[in-house]
């Protein structure tokens, strides 16, 4: 359970075997390349930058077409979701099956058909937009009985179709009728602040009519249809109906291609691999005949890597290995833990990946995380729900490894939740009235607080111990004395001095505690600023270091949240139970009670779990990691398949 030891490899091979070599390393799944093109070493100046830009461009064009196919099928025939999708999960195939499907698929035909039909749908969409716009423009004129063709064929009469401001209707009618006697004015409809009008005048009075209309802000409309507005609207509506039917037929036709979706996804994965393999060339150097590669590999796999390369290159290669240097910040980090601890790696990664020179904090935080989370949830019922729900999910669903670890995370947390719940006597709050625990949260608050503080003190001491181990491992034993054991002395002495009386310790123990504290504090003052050459600066820095004891007090107080959140969740659960008991014993209780119970306790479970997750993380990140852990490493990113749509097994 630690950071995996890494080795750097340097490989020279014939350039003619590059494609086969990279495909093999891709299947190997355990190397990460170093970008040689960014190095400026003297022995590399005879090489040129390797590249596959043309191939990458071609593959990206293919990927775009495949993505179009997938997006189109998902749009018109979405994948099944819910429990069925979780149960089935991603399909798993071998590299050989991937190769076979990727090279024999008729995806180009699928793309052509889907593209043609998508174009048809866009044309229909545009046509529907146009027809709807025309219908919308005609609707205000539905009361007009005349045909547009008849109006255009009038010989002795001029017609006007348009709108004027609604507020000017009466004034316009009065002036127009008095000015042009041989006229006909019909108000067809009102739309917002305008009135649509139909006007007929004798040809001889056309100019005068235009003048008056202009005075009233007349806005002319021009329709090119033949029939009346109602007839045109009916015709356009029928056209819309035909387009909708045609659109549905095309959508159904596209849905039929969803049976090829899995094949297209596999082909997309195939070309993603080709893209990644080609893109890897941006890390390499080459000459006329030779390819230079450098990268990282787990030390325990160097023999397997050499066998893999030999299987491709025969004897025509040059390969060297070098153990990673502890202080090298470029060493990629790969964590290896057992199944339980692995579920908690996300907590470490959310904070920061460890450096190669550090320890993996995951196994060091896991026991504390389990205990602290359990104390904050502290309910047997909630613990059972977490265990059962997680177990069902792990058993019934085909999940990816990362999702399995997430489910296992809560599966393991269910056990301390149940155990602490048993100690507190809590089962969905206080639903079982006669259930007694070792402690009563309502009465033994002080005891729970003391236990919380003691657990916090243990974690702080353990964190300091890890720091001492790391310093000794780095051959800095004096630093371990100055930076760790001095604090052990100061803190332990202070605890004996201040807690000796309440704990009933003998005066001798209290006196010893006092002198141990004094020795520890003196050591902190004298060594806390030892990096300074000036004595005054050294003492000043030492005194400032001693002020850090207030930080330990704050850290210790932070662990009181173990008590606070545990009690809060229990009291909230009990409050929901009290609400149910107040319903009496009638039918209302048996109808409403279960609803309150389920909704209330689900709410409390989720709220308590969120609070426990956040606050337990906070205790690890601030109080615990602050004592020994820095982080800042780079995660190992192996050269392998992305597995976006499917899972590819190498063997």
Proportion in β-strands = 5-15%
Identify low-pLDDT runs.
none
Question: How much helicity do the residues have?
Answer: 55-70%
**What is the CA-based Rg, rounded?**
39 Å
**Helix vs. strand class:** alpha+beta
Main pleated sheet: 6 strands, antiparallel
What is the mean pLDDT? Answer: 90
Number of DSSP strands?
A: 16
Pfam families: V_ATPase_I (PF01496)
Organism: Hathewaya limosa
InterPro entries: V-ATPase_116kDa_su
Membrane topology: Multi-pass membrane protein
Describe the structure.
The protein is of the alpha+beta class and about 650 residues long. The protein starts with a strand and ends with a strand. Strand 7 and strand 8 form a beta hairpin. The chain is built from 23 helices and 16 strands. It folds into four domains: about 70 residues, no CATH class; about 140 residues, no CATH class; about 80 residues, Alpha-Beta Plaits (2-Layer Sandwich); about 210 residues, no CATH class. Helix content is about 60%, strand content about 10%. Strands 2, 3, 4, 10, 11 and 12 form a six-stranded antiparallel β-sheet that branches. A four-stranded antiparallel β-sheet has the order 7-8-6-9, with helices on one face. The protein has a two-stranded antiparallel ribbon with strand order 1-14. The radius of gyration is 39 Å and the shape is extended.
How do the helices and strands line up, and which of them pair or pack?
Blueprint: E1 2-3, E2 6-14, H1 18-28, E3 32-33, E4 48-49, H2 53-76, H3 82-88, E5 92-94, H4 95-104, H5 107-138, H6 148-152, E6 157-165, H7 169-179, E7 183-191, E8 194-202, H8 206-215, E9 219-220, H9 229-256, H10 261-279, E10 285-286, E11 290-298, H11 302-313, E12 317-323, E13 332-333, E14 335-336, H12 339-342, H13 345-351, H14 362-377, H15 380-396, H16 401-424, H17 445-473, H18 477-503, H19 507-527, H20 535-546, H21 549-558, H22 561-581, H23 587-628, E15 634-635, E16 647-649
Helix pairs in contact: 1-10, 1-11, 2-5, 2-10, 4-10, 5-9, 7-8, 14-16, 14-22, 14-23, 15-16, 17-18, 17-21, 17-22, 17-23, 18-19, 19-20, 22-23
